[in-house]
Specification:
The protein is mainly α. Helix content is about 70%, strand content about 0%. Helix 5 packs parallel to helix 11 and helix 9 crosses helix 11.
């Protein structure tokens, strides 16, 4: 009985994956705002009622694609962090940033789904929060390593109480047990936003006819962000 159940679960997972792959192709040609379950079902040779057994609504399918995209870019950052090993935090920060950019350039439509314009009528559920945090948590890992080594130098003068007041209760819960001052977390949050601003300008075309050597610009930006969060070539 377990063998039969396992075969059914594998078959269901394979069909769900096929649906998502087709939906990604649809995103590339039509954009997320025009994602249609009926169109995806038609391309797969399925009746739409069968597809609804896997994804009851367009929003359910969008959520699955969004979670997959966040997980994929998160894995890219985590892999880069792991491969950096004992490299100085200054270098590791730049390695992680470069991995984020590389993933985005290789998957522009998936990147646009999570960091482009909001999809009309779609409200992201709580299920997307943890996957969306993966890159940020890797960046915090880099800072925590430097802080423990005594090489993190923050220039924020507002004080830890002011920095802590900026953070939401959810973030405070996420940081429980971490050896990292609140001022480092707020600095990381600002750098996180700027990192994705740099990536988004490149992926979504704002640098067209403005910046010629985008890789060099990004490298300069990543170094500037490293300094901004308290890292230096000596760390």
């Amino acid at each position: 009985m377990d063998v039969i159940q396992g075969a059914k679960e594998r078959a269901r997972a394979e069909v769900a994956q096929a649906i998502k792959e087709q939906a990604r192709e649809h995103l590339a040609t039509e954009g997320p705002g025009r994602l249609s379950l009926r169109a995806v079902a038609r391309e797969l040779g399925m009746v739409s009622s069968a597809l609804y057994r896997y994804f009851p609504s367009r929003d359910d399918l969008l959520t699955a694609l969004i979670v997959d995209a966040y997980d994929a870019i998160g894995r890219a950052a985590e892999s880069a962090y792991g491969e950096a090993g004992d490299a100085p935090a200054w270098e590791t920060w730049q390695t992680v940033c470069a991995a984020v950019r590389a993933w985005a350039l290789a998957h522009p439509h998936e990147y646009a789904l999570i960091y482009g314009s909001p999809v009309p009528g779609y409200d992201a559920p709580q299920d997307t929060v943890a996957p969306a945090s993966r890159v940020a948590l890797v960046l915090l890992n880099v800072l925590e390593t430097a802080h423990r080594a005594g090489t993190l130098t923050l220039t924020e003068t507002g004080g830890e109480a002011d920095a802590a007041a900026v953070l939401s209760p959810d973030v405070h819960g996420l940081l429980a047990g971490r050896d990292l001052p609140a001022s480092a977390v707020t600095a990381a949050a600002a750098a996180w936003a700027q990192l994705f601003g740099l990536v988004s300008f490149e992926v979504l075309g704002q640098f067209n006819r403005v910046i010629e050597d985008r890789e060099a610009l990004f490298a300069q930006g990543a170094r500037a962000l490293a300094r901004q969060v308290g890292l230096s070539p000596q760390t």
